[in-house]
Amino acid sequence: MSGTRRYAVCGLSARGLASFVLPVLGLTDRTADGGFGYGSDEDDLSGYAEVVAIVDTDADRVAEFNQALERLGRAPIPFYPRTAYDEMLERVGPDAVIVTSPDHTHEEYIVGALRRDVDVITEKPMVSTAAAARAVLAAERESGGTVQVSHNFRYPAAHREVKRLIQSGVIGRITRVVMDYHVDLRHGASYFLRWNRRRALSGGLQVHKSSHHFDLLNWWIGSAPEEIFGYGALNYYGPGSPHRSDRRADDPYFLAQQGSGVFPADDGVRAGLFGLHYPGQYPASRPLYLYDAEIDIEDTYSAIARYPGGASLTYSVDFSSTWEGYRVSIGGTHGSIELRHGRTVDGTALPDSGQITVAELFGPARVLEIVPEEGGHGGADPLMRRDLFAGPSPESTELGLMATSTEAAYAVAMGDALTQSITTHTPVNLPALLGLTTLHLEG
Q: Has residue 30 got a pLDDT over 70?
């Protein structure tokens, strides 16, 4: 494995497996056995990287994964519990860590690595609170290591094309952006059957989910907001749900999702991607329901944000919709760009999905058809992985596809500030929340 970089993976999550561990191990379709392979041969990153340790709280899940590797003729990967993270860094000495654990644990893994001048690749959101983002930025300033954040929502072909159009100046200076985002009732319900449903673990969906959207919008606009204000509520889930049922057989969400894998089987036995279980995180003795009292996050919210130079953002999302996707309208001094992408719950593409409409203020409108790309998240993941492990492509450099830690910090801060605004009914200043005297973005 000479010439490869040595990575320790913090959190053997489904996302960690699919996006990082299996591609680094070279377990592509070509090497698949029993459904354990993932992606295509182009996703094979074994020539660039190797996994030298796994850090997790769930020893049984890691053991199950290592047993699967041994059945494939692969060597097991050394395991360290979360409490032995510092020991792992000292003993193994990885070149970098990959953080794919629950959001509230990111800070300790990132800061712990930076204190030893070890590079970090972290799943988005970078952290779960603005305070944690401040801590990461401070640690990075004092470190020889760097932080890269996998904001893959920049990478789909349609999003890259929108960025090119904005950079070309065809719509002039951006004046306003509107995003209306929908998470369908199957996908939306899944967040309320996992750790995400507790704000202390996820920062709320404003951070866990919407930070992806905020990063995309900031990237298009080329800035971050100075101020944000919003409203939100828990409308669909939790003990006050209008759909609440004490019997699973009568639960409309369960009936709509039978066979989808969203609900754990047998009231608690939970298997995730590739059939791996979560015995430590989701013990069978503690089943989770959509109407539990511990749910303390919003499932519907809206925000308005103000950017330097006068641009504004209007954003809304709900997590129990009849369709999945979004409508985006970007207005500028010389025209507009509109993009719609979505599908119904049964998978039917919505009319005009994937099309970009460009209209000049004093000229014609034209429709751009975007050719879908292969790979996870609309072709985004393979491109992002290549940037992270093999180095940025010319297109990535041109468009600024790789998110910096500061850009990721603003995406987190927007979600955290939105949560605060929902509680206080007042606007929140973003630079102040991050401990900055002025708004600053790199790149």
A: no
- Structure pTM? 0.94
How do residues 369-396 score in pLDDT, each as one tens digit?
A: 898 887 787 788 999 999 999 999 999 9
Contact between residue 386 and residue 42 where contact means Cβ atoms under 8 Å apart: no
Q: Which residues, other chains included, contact 238 with Cβ-Cβ below 8 Å and sequence gap of 6+?
A: 192, 290, 291, 292, 293, 295
Buried b (16+ CB within 10 A) or exposed e, 344-382: ebeeeeeeebbebebbeeeeeeeeeebeebebbbbbbbb
What is the mean pLDDT of the segment spanning 64-82?
A: 94
Kindly give, in sequence order, each residue whose CB lies less than 8 Å from that of residue 388, ignoring residues fewer than 6 positions away.
Answer: 121, 148, 150, 402
Catalogue all structural domains in the chain, each as residue range(s) with its CATH number.
5-151 (3.40.50.720), 153-237+296-433 (3.30.360.10)
| Helix runs in 391-440, H state only | 394-399, 405-424, 430-433
Which among 358, 329, 356, 354 has a CA at the least distance from the CA of 342? 354
CB-side neighbour CA atoms (13 Å) of 153: 20
